[in-house]
Amino acid sequence: MTRHAQDQAKTSKLKTGYAQKVLSPQRLLDAPLPELLAELDVTLDESSITDPSFTGAAVVTRDRVILSMRPGQPDSERDAVARALLGRVLDVPLSPLPEPYRMSEV
Question: What pLDDT is stored for residue 12 in this prediction?
Answer without folding.
Answer: 32
